[in-house]
Amino acid sequence: MPTSGDIEKVVIIGSGPAGWTAAIYAARANLDPLVLEGIPKQTPALMLPGGQLMQTTEVENFPGYPEGVDGPKMMEDIKKQALRFETRVEMREVTSCDLSKRPFTLETVDFGGDTKTVTAHAVIVATGATANWVGLENERRLAQSGGGVSACAVCDGALPAFRDQPLVVVGGGDSATEEATYLSKFASKVFIIHRRDELRASRIMAQRVLDNPKIEVVWDTVVTDVLGDKHVTGVALKNVKTGEESTLDCRGFFAAIGHTPLTEFLQGQLELDDKKYIVLEDAGRSLTNIEGVFVAGDAADSVYRQAITAAGMGCKAAIDAERWLAEKGIE
Ligand code: NAP
Fold first, then answer.
1. In Å, how far are 219, 246, 263, 303 from 242, measured between CA atoms?
2. Are the C-beta atoms of residues 14 and 38 closer than 8 Å to each other?
3. pLDDT in tens, 176-210
4. How far is the CA of 177 from the centre of ligand 1 (A)?
5. 99 class by beta-carbon count within 10 Å (0-12 exposed, 13-18 middle, 19+ buried)
6. What domains are defined for the chain?
7. Which residues lie across from 217 on neighbouring strands?
8. Residue 249 in 3-state DSSP?
9. What is the pLDDT of residues 265-286, one digit of tens each?
10. Whose CA is nearest to atom 33 of ligand 1?
C-alpha cells in the first residue's frame, strides 16, 4: 500500500458506476487502486459523490436487481464491492493535472479546502457528466424531493407515477426527441417545449417525433416555472415570439437540454471534442491520446449514458490499465 509521497499504480477519478467497476477490476488485479471519489456539490439536488445515480430514485434497468433499486443504494452496493477488494478511497476532487509527463500529477482538494498532490503511473478518468437544468427554483426543489422532475427519461420514465399521464420534455436536440419518443410509450401525452421554431435533433429523430400522434411540440416557448407542491402538476410557459404566457398540466418534467462532461480539469491536457467529451483513441476501448490515461463512462460517452454502459467501460479501462502497467513493468 503506497504511503504519502509514493507513486500510485493507478488512480481512478470518479465514483459512479464506471469508477467503482474500474476499482473492482483493478483491485482484483492487485493494482491497489486509489479512488478519488469527489466532494459533495449543489446541482438541482445536493449531489454526493457517486455521480448522477445519487440523484436517481429508482433504477429498474440495471441487471441483477429484479425488483429495481434506488440509485444511491446501487452506488453503495458497487462501492462496497470495490472496498471488499481493498480499494482505497479519498473524498477529494481533482482541480488540475499534469499529464504531459509520467508519472502523472493530480492536484486535489478535499471538502475542507485542504490540497494534496497525488502522483500516479496510470490514471482512469471516470468523472462522468452532469445533466444541464433549466435553472428554475421549483425545478431544483422537485428534483431534490423526487417530485417528478428528472433529467433522464430512460432512468425514470417507466415509473408508475408517470404512466398514462401527460409529461413535459424541455429541449430540441437528439436527447429531447429520444426521451419524448421513449416516454410516449408510457405517457398519455408528451409535450416537447422548445425555445425555437425548428428542432436541432437529427432529421430522422425529429421526424419520428413529428409523426408520433402522442407527441406535441410547443414551439418558440420556454418554461418559466414548474408548478406543484409535492409533485409536478404543470408548467408555466412563455411564448418567446408573442410574449404570451400560459400553463400546461403535466405530471412529469424532463429536462433534456444537454449534458456537460466533467472534464474541465483536463482542458489542455487530454484531447477533448468540441463539447468537452474525452476523445477515445479507439472506439470500443478505453485509450486516450495520452498513453497511461484511460477513460470510462459518460465523460467519453454522449450517446448511451447508462449505468450499465458506464460500468462496462469501467471494466475495460481497468483491464487496459492493467495490461499497460504490465507492459511497462510496473507491477
Ligand atoms: P444538444 O444537441 O446540445 O441539444 C440541446 C437542446 O436543448 C437544444 O435544442 C437547445 O436549444 C436546448 N436548450 C439548451 N439550453 C436550453 C435552455 N436553457 N432552455 C431551453 N432549451 C435549451 O444536446 P443533446 O440533445 O443532449 O445532445 C447532445 C449530443 O448527444 C448531440 O451530439 C447528440 O446528437 C448526441 N445524442 C445522440 C443520441 C442518439 O444518437 N441516439 C441521443 C442523445 C444525444 P437550441 O436548439 O435552441 O440550441
1. 11, 12, 39, 35
2. yes
3. 999 999 999 999 999 999 999 999 999 999 999 99
4. 9
5. buried
6. 4-130+259-327 (3.50.50.60), 133-255 (3.50.50.60)
7. 192
8. strand
9. 999 999 999 999 999 998 899 9
10. 174
